[in-house]
Design a protein that fits this description.
- The protein is α+β, with helices and mostly antiparallel strands.
- The protein contains three helices and eleven strands.
- Strands 4, 5, 8, 9, 10 and 11 form a six-stranded antiparallel β-sheet that branches. A five-stranded antiparallel β-sheet has the order 3-2-1-7-6, with helices on one face.
Length: 190
């Protein structure tokens, strides 16, 4: 009696791989990767701001967020002695904007509540714009900043890639906004 072997022939596997390849060639150009990168970046940065505010309340000391527009990152400093200086033993961590993401709003219209500058923070520490979260949860000032994709910033296209993050002074709460591109309107995301 002959045993039957179950499986696929190499020809059948090659046909499946070819069909998958064709499907990928059709589908990939339709996927807007920039949209997902910008969305992920604003969520990460918004969460960073919320975490910094909560850390200040929990640990009962200032937490400073520095806006490094040249390095395209935020620096979060746990200022244990509230002196506004990074001292030995105080924890500082960088938070990168993400691949293909930069500070700016590209061709998107400025949001009235956020101002027109890329980073709207007046306080500087060590020559860098900084926002301080205090132990009562409040922020040193109302602040905002914009992020967008590199494509939108350099090519003056894709205004819908723009996102804004606003921080309320009294409560230290963060709001995330996105530019719709339609009629110059901004919509609150969170």
């Amino acid at each position: 009696m002959r045993q039957t072997r179950w499986g696929f022939t190499i020809v059948e596997l090659m046909i499946v791989v070819a069909v998958l390849g064709l499907l990928m060639m059709i589908a990939l150009p339709r996927i807007d990767i920039q949209r997902y990168r910008v969305r992920g970046a604003v969520q990460a940065l918004g969460t960073t701001m919320l975490t910094a505010q909560r850390q200040a309340v929990t640990e009962q000391h200032d937490v400073i967020v520095y806006f490094d527009t040249t390095g395209q990152l935020l620096r979060v400093h746990s200022d244990r002695n509230n002196n506004g200086v990074i001292d030995a033993g105080e924890h500082t961590r960088p938070v990168r904007l993400g691949e293909g993401i930069v500070f700016g709003r590209g061709p998107a219209a400025a949001m009235a509540a956020a101002g027109s500058n890329t980073v709207n923070v007046t306080k500087t520490l060590g020559g860098v714009q900084a926002l301080v979260f205090h132990r009562d949860g409040s922020a040193s000032e109302a602040a905002s900043f914009y992020i967008t994709s590199v494509t939108a910033q350099r090519g003056n296209v894709r205004p819908q890639d723009a996102r804004a993050l606003l921080v309320e002074r009294a409560t230290g709460r963060s709001q995330w906004w996105r530019f719709t591109g339609a009629g110059g309107t901004w919509v609150k995301v969170f």
